[in-house]
Amino acid sequence: MIALVVTGSVVGAELLARTAHVSDELIEDIQPARAEALRLQSALLNQETGARGYVIAADPQFLAPYTQGQRDEQNAAARMRRLIGDRATLRADLDAIERAAADWRRTYADPLVAGVTPGTPRPVDKGTTDRGKTAFDHIRTLFTTQNGHLSQAREQSRGELAHVRTVRNWVLGGMVAAFLVTGVVLAVLAHTLVARPLAGLRTASRRVARGEFQHRIPGEGPADIRALAADVEEMRRRLVAELDASRAQQEDLTRQAADLDAQAVELRRSNAELEQFAYVASHDLQEPLRKVASFCQLLEKRYGDRLDERGTQYIAFAVDGAKRMQILINDLLTFSRVGRVNDAHVPVALGQALDKAVANLAAAAEESGAVVERPDELPEITGDPMLLVMLWQNLIGNAIKFRHPDRAPRIRITCRQEPGHEEGGTEWLLCVTDNGIGIPEEFAEKVFVIFQRLHGRDAYSGTGIGLAVCKKIVEFHGGRIWIDTAHTDGARFCFTLPATTPDPSAVSTPARTTLEGQPA
Fold first, then answer.
1. Reduced 3-state DSSP string for 444-472
2. 3-class DSSP state of 78
């Protein structure tokens, strides 16, 4: 198509230039040359008429056409010479007329005019007149020849112009036909080489889109379409690979879901057994323990005077063991019920929960002289009110229980808001600091394990479940608890609780109060 356009443009430009040249030659050269030839002939006729009138009338005013005709002849001849250019025939005609006119003036007109006396007319003999007429008739013959040659040149130019126009029209028509044929050929080629491969690619892609993922997408046609088909085929292969992997993963997830369902069923069964165990532990197990303790006390009361000191001691050991077993069972039930029995999620003011815990510890606090420094206000969170009271009570109770023998317990509670682990979330950081005996760093994790004790029963009472319960309560509310090992003058327990809403009123400046909530 590019070659056709370039060739057509060159040929068309050449034909148009040739047509313009021939047309310009006819309009700007031949036609004006004919007009100048007529002016030249008119100038010569004016010379002949003026010379003849001057000879007859001897009046100088009749000589004016003769002299003016010579000037007009020169001008017309000069212009005509420029117009005919290098056309030999026309130039020869002009040269012949110029020579004949010059001979006519030299042999007849100029001598005749020179022989006339102004104001004295004289007759001209017939011989001279005939000789002049013959000379000028020769010029007229040359006029006829020149006019014929100019007409022939004009007709030749017209014929050439018509021929060029015909050739131009045929060539342009052929170019249009060639363009049309080339367009049809290109359309057929585009349909064969481009449209059909694209249609095949579209059909194959639709089959894959409908779910025939194993259908191979062929590559046909030009290189670009083959490259496109190869890219689509590669995409299909990757999709098939991803689909196979997804199916395998789905099967794994299905199996895992089935396993989880089975585990959930097993967990529900285990929870039911745990509930049954809790019921048995709270009723069936405690009743025998009470009987053991009661009958041991009856034995001591009835047969105490018959028993020696060792027998009385053995009975005391049995009674103490039964009571400790009851305490262990109750603590174990308490631990197992955290977050399982009530499972409440309501707005809870931590300040009110702290007030209840302080009230529950009033007797121990009065005995030890404990002082609690707490913020004026504590935030509100969403949780279980009973568990949060238990949390405060265990932490403050431990601070009173493990007090330093040389000083009264001083417990300091702080609270501040910090960024949470989740993006955009916040949490409350609360710390309970005391001036007691403290906890060695190597036991910072061990103390949160159930039934783990750092001291003997003879030194401090209890079963070692309090901090384990605190850890379970904090984790149930979505927080975490730890011991600040950097604090050495006593113990510092820190825990976090998710913030329900920002509460700028909660401040960490402690106010010194007693356990009863009154100013110290």
1. CCHHHCCCCCCCCCCCCCCCCCHHHHHHH
2. helix
d(CA 433, CA 484): 9
Token pair for residue 363?
Answer: 């007797």
Instruction: For Cα atoms 149, 154, 160, give the angle at the middle one, nearest 5 degrees.
Output: 120
Distance CA 405, CA 411 (A): 15
- Burial letters for 307-331: b for 16+ Cβ neighbours within 10 Å, e otherwise? eeeeeeeebeebbeebeebbeebeb
**Which token pair is 272?**
């039911």
Distances (CA, A) of 199 to 36, 222, 228, 341: 74, 13, 13, 68
Q: Is the pLDDT of residue 513 over 60?
A: no
In sequence order, the 6+-apart residues with CB closer than 8 A to the CB of 394 are: 466, 467, 469, 470
Q: How far is CA 347 from CA 25, 68, 271, 359, 502, in A?
A: 110, 132, 28, 21, 14
CA-CA distance, 452 to 336, in Å (whole number)? 16
Kind and range of the H or E run holding 149: helix 126-190
Model confidence at 113, pLDDT cuts 50, 70, 90, reads confident
Residue showing tokens 């103490």 = 320
Ordered by start, the domain boundaries in the chain are 24-168, 266-337, 344-514
Nearest residue to 211 via CA among 236, 233, 229, 245: 236
pLDDT at 342 over 60: no
Among 171-175, 251-255, 336-340, 433-437, name the one with the lowest average pLDDT. 336-340
What is the model's pLDDT at position 210? 82
pLDDT, residue 298, reads: 79
Longest CA–CA span in the chain (Å) reads 212
- For residue 116, give the DSSP letter: P
User: CA 169 to CA 152: how far, in whole Å?
Assistant: 25
Lowest mean pLDDT among 210-214, 233-237, 420-424, 457-461: 457-461
Q: Is the pLDDT of residue 468 over 70?
A: yes
439 and 398 Cβ atoms separated by less than 8 Å: no
| Top-tier CATH class for 24-168 | mainly alpha
The full DSSP string for 9-22 is: HHHHHHHHHHHHHH
- b/e burial code for range 256-275 (CB count within 10 A of at least 16 → b): eeeeeeeeeeeeeeeeeeee
Determine how many CB atoms are found less than 10 A away from the CB of residue 339: 16
Phi-psi domain of 369 (left: phi exceeds 0; alpha: psi -120 through 50; beta: other): left
CATH class of 344-514: alpha beta
Give the tokens for residue 359. 């009230």
